[in-house]
Amino acid sequence: MNQQLIEQIVKEVMLSISEAKEMGEETAVAVAEPKPALESVSKEDYPLAKKRPELIKTPTGKTLDDITLQEVLGGAVKPEDVRISPETLELQAQVAESVGREPFARNLRRAAELITVPDDRILEIYNALRPYRSTKEELLAIADELEHQYSAKINAHLVRESAKVYELRDRLKKN
Q: Does the pLDDT value for residue 22 go beyond 60?
């Protein structure tokens, strides 16, 4: 990376932190609460697929042993059988935390929340979060939807925080 790009990124991060503090501590950082997993893992268990494959299951309940080329070619394994599960993302978050990568662990937990949200809705939300695409009310409605319809509390907090920042920076769509 070139020096100018790094300096620009640092400036933007510092500006965001400063603005978050102005809005109040409760919006400064959305902390992902670890969800209880059936079992805890750490860096010693990584990579999970090799060292703890019995813990990895797809949302449909298939194990790694159930997903073979023969089963795929035979039609026994469908696309929904090879998606990652929230539980697997939680295990990966635990590994990340065990090596001090808390921000990455929070990202994995946010991703785990979004598994139940349909892909097309995620794309709509992504587009709605672009500057000047949504009003504050529209963003708050998305946050309510994420929280109440999908139990995605961390993501809902992130959208609410975005609405506040967009309002501060005048990046909301005009009615």
A: no
Q: How many structural domains are present in the chain? A: 2
| Higher per-residue pLDDT: 175 or 128 | 128
Measured torsion, CA atoms of residues 153, 109, 28, 139, in degrees rounded to the nearest 10: -50
The answer to whether residues 63 and 56 touch, using CB atoms and an 8 Å cutoff, is yes
Distance between CA atoms of residues 114 and 76, nearest Å: 26
Whether residue 20 is contained in a domain is answered as no
End-to-end CA distance of the chain: 40
Is 31 within the bounds of a domain?
no
pTM for the full model? 0.73
Which of 97, 115, 133 is the last residue before a domain boundary?
Answer: 115
Residue 6 has a pLDDT of 60
Q: Are residues 99 and 123 in the same domain?
A: no
